[in-house]
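look at this one:
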Amino acid sequence: MPKTMRHITLRDRFEYGAVVGIVAALRLLPFRQRSAVIAWIMLRVIAPLAGYKKRVRQNLHHVWPDLDEGKRDVLVDSIIRNFGRTLCELFSPDDLRRMAAETELTGPGLAALEDARAAGRPTIVISGHFGNYDIARAALIGHGFDVGALYRRMNNPLFHDFYLRNISTIGTPLFERGRPGLGEMVRHLKGGGTLAALIDVRANSGAPVPFLGKPALTAHSMAELALRYDAVLVPFYGTRLPDGEHFTAHLEAPIPLSDPETMTRALNQSLEARVRETPEQWFWVHNRWKGAPADGDA
């Protein structure tokens, strides 16, 4: 059954009502305070009730089974707080655009994108559920790049339309993963535009590619698009700074065009390096390794 038609569960209603209700109730607060309050509510109320803390612990144990229990407890709380702050930013588009305008674009990938833009060559920028991807996307748009974003329909039908309205205010066009957005996405690339996408979305029909030492089902589609349309492929990240509100937006050197498997592994390795450096900024809540083969098969 398509996600838009599936039965709405009690959990769907709880997640939607909790997040939307809290954001609406706190809109009168200055953004910094609002972000801190939502992070606290996510940690103390929503995450325990929705099972997020349990999922984070399971994923941490899966990839780092020898992690000290005390360090794991601290890390779990940091991950959940970051999740809350990111949600607050996503549903505060005016504040998100302000933060993006204050975020400097850095790294060798920026010059590569500018050269491609001048030549009318398509570009693909790849990130993950790390820091705040939309801050970096908005910063690219503010820098004059024609960025179209690929998004995945959310599992919660109630939440999806609300989510889509908010990410649309950050920038358009938006392309839904799969057949619905394929034609528009290809036209955007052929016209020399920039496509932004995430590499860490579990692809049920994808290939098992190592991520944090464990096989994770990963689509080769972004690498295949880059090869088909001779697009510059650049990993990019919006990393949260210690003050919790400001970011860096770094564009790494382009991934060499070779073959889909090699390029996809390179993208996973790029994100993996970021996660190892600041694991609290990655979205450990989702089932990234679900359905993958045994470790030795990756």
Q: What stands out?
A: The radius of gyration is 19 Å. The mean pLDDT is 91.
